[in-house]
Amino acid sequence: MEQGKRYSKEVKERAVRLVLEHQEEYSSQWSAISSIAPKIGCTCETLRRWVRQTERDQGSREGRTTSEKQRIKDLERENRELKRANEILRKASAFFAQAELDRIPR
Length: 106
Known about the structure:
Radius of gyration: 25 Å
CATH superfamily of the largest domain: Winged helix-like DNA-binding domain superfamily/Winged helix DNA-binding domain
Distance between the termini: 65 Å
Number of domains: 2
């Protein structure tokens, strides 16, 4: 599966705006998405996800906003780094404690 940012922020915003502005002209939001997605050059599912996320960010749909998702991602990264640092400190502490026990008393 292809990773990375294939579509610019401007393209995403334009596509979502088109769906939201023209959905009244269609029988459903999915119909609008199905019509607009090929014109933008993305899949219907991709455009649907963009629309849903925009609706969450605007507060018109339940779920995590983009800023909340980013905050969680940052906290998870920080948590992993702290766990890694704790493991290093734990091993270093055990190493030095063993070295102290192995010292010959003078």
